[in-house]
Amino acid sequence: MRDRIEQLVSVVSSVVLGKDEVVRLAVACMLAKGHLLIEDLPGMGKTTLAQTLAHVFGLDYRRVQFTSDMLPADILGGAIFDQKTSCFTYHPGPIFTQLLLADEINRSTAKTQSALLEAMEEGQVSSEGVTRKLPAPFFVIATQNPISQFGTFPLPESQLDRFLMRISLGYPDPHTERELLKHGDTRRDIEQLPVCIDSTLLTQLQNACAQVSVSDAVLGYIQRLAQFSRDSDEVVLGISPRGALALIQAAKAWAYMSGRDFLMPDDVQQVFSPVVEHRLLMRGDSESGSAHNILSQVDVLG
């Protein structure tokens, strides 16, 4: 099954050029049953990555463009009066899919953003007094522009915490950019890609990742990282117990993708920044490099 994972990573990387490590992180996030937040400037390939992942995993896919005037019902759905039957009928919203792309999620207000909280945590939606289960598997891949851009609303900490990872694509290197300029928009190639892993195999892979063993030594290492973040003078709010669990969850998927059924500190380090950095509340204005600082100082302390 690991060969299928490598095939999938290779296929996604054929569309999202020059971002192999980011692609592997995104795949690891989905194997760990996590939701993914992609933060970057417009035009960097955020939507392309989400669309490609949905296709190669063979998932039902819907895209919602978030705007400042959007309401929760635009995502969850609601009851609409039917004149023929003289009663209200519930019409499911776009959230009833296997992979929802919440495009530019921070263009909407906190009220609309919060409509995703129950779905992301519980895999269900409560609307009109009724709780309805979402399809399985269910993922949210959200994109957001930097909060310095006009017309954005920062995601609250409770919403950020629902995302297992936050990644960024960044500018391409000169060689990759030349290939992009020669080839044109790679999104037109997505429909031609093979479906590498279907829903059944994805569930099997997720279960296999969950079975990766974690030794007491590695658990102690993760605890030291969490404790150091809480004690650091640079950090207002450190890694919570749920954040530490998310770190283990993601590291297990990375270890499995690396061909191992046991966790190593290297696996923790590979996923540490994407899993932890958006969960930290720093004293300064910028959180850039905060996760790396914690890693390096804990390594020095042993």
Describe the overall structure:
The chain has 302 residues and is an alpha/beta fold. The protein folds into 2 domains: 1-207, P-loop containing nucleotide triphosphate hydrolases (Rossmann fold, 3-Layer(aba) Sandwich), CATH 3.40.50; 211-302, Orthogonal Bundle (Helicase, Ruva Protein, domain 3). It has helices spanning 2-13, 20-31, 46-56, 73-76, 110-113, 117-122, 157-160, 174-183, 199-210, 216-231, 241-257, 265-276, 290-301; strands at 35-39, 61-65, 77-82, 87-92, 99-103, 124-127, 130-133, 139-144, 163-167, 235-237, 281-282.
List the helices and strands and how they pair.
Elements (H helix, E strand, L loop, with lengths): L1 H12 L6 H12 L3 E5 L6 H11 L4 E5 L7 H4 E6 L4 E6 L6 E5 L6 H4 L3 H6 L1 E4 L2 E4 L5 E6 L12 H4 L2 E5 L6 H10 L15 H12 L5 H16 L3 E3 L3 H17 L7 H12 L4 E2 L7 H12 L1
Parallel strand pairs: 1-8, 1-9, 2-5, 5-8
Antiparallel strand pairs: 3-4, 6-7, 10-11
Characteristic key phrases:
two-stranded antiparallel ribbon; Helicase, Ruva Protein, domain 3; Rossmann fold; 17% strand; 302 residues; five-stranded parallel beta sheet
